[in-house]
Amino acid sequence: MAKFVVFLRAVNVGGRKLAMADARKVLEGNGFTGVESHIQTGNFLVDTSLRSIAKVEQAVGEALGKHAGYDIVAIARRPADLTGLVEAVDAVPVSLEGEQSRYVSFCAEAPTAARAAALEEWDAPGERAHVIGKDVLMEFALPFHTAKLTGPKIEKVLGVAGTARNMTVVRALAQKWGT
Questions:
Q1: 54-91 pLDDT tens trace
Q2: For 114, how many CA atoms within 13 A lie in the half-sphere containing its CB?
Q3: For residue range 31-52, what is the model confidence (pLDDT) as tens digits?
Q4: β-pairing verdict for 43-48 and 2-9
Q5: Does the pTM exceed 0.90?
Q6: Last residue of a domain, which of 42, 77, 112?
Q7: H helices then E strands: how many in the chain?
Q8: At which of 60, 77, 94 does a domain end?
Q9: Based on the number of CB atoms within 10 Å of its own CB, is 58 exposed (0-12), middle (13-18) or buried (19 or more)?
Q10: Are 26 and 70 contained in the same domain?
Q11: Considering its fold, how many domains does the chain have in total?
């Protein structure tokens, strides 16, 4: 069995409700074991006989989407990838004076070099982006809810689906589920 950390995009926001207890039961009923969740934003640890990240994402998205009645995008990482991402983020020096927060957008696939360069050229006051492999570190020196560098903007620039998490949550998951 292989372990994967799975992030769901856009659940429990905008009327798209999905109870984590129900989601755990659905995943267990669809062949996943050792299912755990962390907070209400769609963060799961699963054990599975599937070996491919793409197959895990597809199976989780389909099972939960069928249960919820709407499409669910699932983005998976191996636990070691999550730990490595935290280390990579910590190696990026703070680049904004007065930085208030850091977020990571987990992307479904790595962007092309040209799209990654376009995102890293983002030039809004108090906002910066750094592409780290498949993911994006977002830095803000302003309140997150006022930022122009949003999930939809990142998806548009990179051309890939993603879901964002505050670094506090990412660190907690790396400590809890990472290797």
A1: 999 999 999 999 999 989 999 999 999 999 999 999 99
A2: 1
A3: 999 999 998 888 999 999 999 9
A4: antiparallel
A5: yes
A6: 77
A7: 6, 8
A8: 77
A9: middle
A10: yes
A11: 2
